[in-house]
Amino acid sequence: MTDRPHTLDALAATDTAELREILLDVCASPAWADAVAAARPWRDRRALLAANAEAMAALSTADLHAALAGHARIGAPAEGDAASEREQAAVHGAGEALLDELHRANAAYEAKFGHVFLICATGRTAPAVLAALRERHPNSPAAEAEIVRGELRRINDIRITRLLDGA
User: Options 1.10.3720.10, 1.10.3330.10, 1.20.1600.10, 3.40.50.720; which CATH number does 8-165 get?
Assistant: First the structure.
């Protein structure tokens, strides 16, 4: 994801193909990117964030899986992906034993649900992430899909804000 700030107006005026690529850096779901782009022009930042929420709510199961494909496993941020590394910063300082526990819990979660465990890790400690992973593992696939949808929306909100602020 680029750290170059975009004004809301400039982003809204961006060529459709370029805007789609920018939005796919926020969320890997093409359906989400297309829906957010189709909501242009956004009257203000809240309208863009509302477009994120509406697009996220409308995603099919397959679209959710496409969005999840753009996220690294917790405890193993994608090398060279600044967003992934920044979002998982609290996990970086975790000890080897905790990272091993995260690895095992992630593997069990992935075996059950068929995708990576997703949580908005920004501001969370590694023990808190592990606790959430363990707490969510017993969920049904349907219940977990709705939790994932909410976590994706929060992550997208943060990424959109970073996109606009360049922070």
Answer: 1.10.3330.10
Produce one character per residue of 33-70: b if its CB has 16 or more CB atoms within 10 Å, e if not: bbbbbebeebeeeeebbebbbebbeebeeebbbbbbeb
In this prediction, residues 99-127 reach a mean pLDDT of 93
Distances (CA, A) of 28 to 5, 47, 73, 102, 114: 20, 21, 15, 24, 17
Using the predicted structure, report yes or no on whether residue 14 has a pLDDT greater than 90. yes
Question: What is the spatial distance between Cα 98 and Cα 82, in angstroms, rounded to a whole number?
Answer: 23
